[in-house]
């Protein structure tokens, strides 16, 4: 039976790009639950922009697989959330629609790139949200806004209808106020879809179980060392002691590949982005417009005008590292480093069940604090390893520093999302 809901909020933090005032939903496991969707996930009949001028006015003719699943489960889809343009950023400031503000402190960013999704939940605008995580974009805003966010194992959630940024790294994932919410949303979106060739037949039917007796948690020294705010590191260590009291065992360890992870991530994500974003020629999708000059001139003029600065920077970087003469020097080296990260996790997961550390090296930045792109890239150091290896990782709130939330990150073995969720649930 179809039911109706009116969605009316005063969005003072710019969490949404589009809101849906009148919603119809049906019966199901999520019946009437309000869910927001990141604006890089295609929604039939609803503008989907990736927070970019190049996609303004683009109305997808189909739903992403996850959106069809949400509708079948009776979710009330309330709108599309703000983000860094095409997912490129850590603050949600790289949006053509202006920044989203952190609901805990309006002078700070909500994190990114799924900042609108996290902020909408933290502000109480909706119950749950979908984000996407290429190098931390679910976990970072979850940590900065004090909510829970899961990057699932690569392959567990279909990417059909997710507008690609760097497809070998990214997953759509659930965000909610608590672990139970994340688990409920995950159970709806996980599972096989033949339209995504990397999707696997691993539905999620688990109910979170807080018994963690004997669980071995590895603490890589690199997650608590240089570049990590000591107050954040201490808060996370206290959270680990809480887990120890509940029966877990903390195991000191090391991940030497961390010294290469960030460089590898930025070569791979920009390379994939330069290829994925080639489809946006300013003619198909979005505003279009009459051709006045030659196709080549129009192509570069429109991309220059409609892509933001960070997107253009990354297309140039990626095109450079894929150029014939430089391929071996950058892209191939990055793939070798990516394998080192995978090997480190494989070795560690023979000794421990989970790896833990802070989600982000600091609390949420002040607006405009990270105007130097390299400084912004550095803040992704603790989240990118899970994407390079394709393993599941969750961020769960674990305390505050200077009044702002801190996230505990728990990383698991490939396809052991259940274990990651259980440990987060035990902590919560
Ligand atoms: N901050 C990272 C980047 O800019 C991660 C983004 C993401 O996960 N989409 O690439």
From TrEMBL:
PROSITE patterns in the cross-refs? AMIDASES
Quote the catalytic residue positions.
Answer: 38, 113, 137
Q: Which reaction does it catalyse?
A: L-glutamyl-tRNA(Gln) + L-glutamine + ATP + H2O = L-glutaminyl-tRNA(Gln) + L-glutamate + ADP + phosphate + H(+)
Superkingdom as given in the UniProt entry: Archaea
Record key words, sorted: ATP-binding, Ligase, Nucleotide-binding, Protein biosynthesis, Transferase
An annotated GO cellular component: glutamyl-tRNA(Gln) amidotransferase complex
- Pfam family of the protein (one): Amidase
In short, the EC number is 6.3.5.7
A molecular function annotated in GO for this UniProt entry is: ATP binding
Name the protein family.
Answer: Belongs to the amidase family. GatA subfamily.
**What's the protein here called?**
Glutamyl-tRNA(Gln) amidotransferase subunit A
